[in-house]
Amino acid sequence: MGMISPAARGWPCLVLNADFAPLSYQPLSLIPWQDAIKQVFLDRVQTVVEYDHAVSSPSFEMVLPSVIALKSYVQQNRQVAFTRFNVFLRDGFSCVYCGSGHELTFDHLIPRSKGGRTNWNNIVAACSPCNLRKGGRLPNECGMVPSLQPRRPSAYELRAMGQKFPPNFLHESWMDYLYWDVELDS
């Protein structure tokens, strides 16, 4: 994975909870440097790691925070929201029929035309060609067997899946607080 210079990305800041765990992995809990500075001044966070870059005004200079931690712990929501992104994350960003990661769509295992609902237990990620091939039929009617049975994932399961898909940009100063096994090129 190539390292993109922080300047090209606007000096993002990793936000940790008070227990020093990221607030989220997908999407990674990042804020712009301007918001990070504001949170430092409002005394809502503590700076954990700084960049080797500062911003200044005529009377003040501040080194930009790279990692901040909230001073008060934020309880994480245990109920996972049903969203397109979370369905794709649960299914590993691949079609449950053929394994492709391209042109992903929602597929209703029990089609809406047959009373199927749009919920965790009936929706899977499917590539557009497989979704079109299945059409308004049940999987067994067209010989398409999903590689997994849909269900509501736990927050822990989604977090674990999120760790399998690191974002395109990870600054080396964040690696002590993240749990991806990646190599950063200098």
Short description:
With 186 residues, this protein is of the alpha+beta class.
Describe this structure in words.
With 186 residues, the chain is an alpha+beta fold. It is built from five helices and six strands, in the order αββαββαββαα. The strands form two sheets. A four-stranded mixed sheet has the order 2-1-4-3, covered by helices on one side. The protein has a two-stranded antiparallel ribbon with strand order 5-6. The longest helix is centred in the N-terminal third of the chain and has 9 residues, at 33-41. The N and C termini lie close together (10 Å).
For the structure shown, list the relevant keywords.
two-stranded antiparallel sheet; four-stranded mixed sheet; alpha+beta; 5 helices; 20% strand; disordered N terminus; 186 residues; elongated
What secondary-structure arrangement, pairings included, does this model have?
Elements: H1 6-9, E1 13-16, E2 30-31, H2 33-41, E3 45-56, E4 61-70, H3 84-90, E5 104-108, E6 123-127, H4 128-134, H5 155-162
Parallel strand pairs: 1-4
Antiparallel strand pairs: 1-2, 3-4, 5-6
Enumerate the strands of the largest sheet in spatial order, edge to edge or round the barrel. Answer: 2-1-4-3
Number of helices: 5
Order of helical and strand elements: HEEHEEHEEHH
Count of β-strands: 6
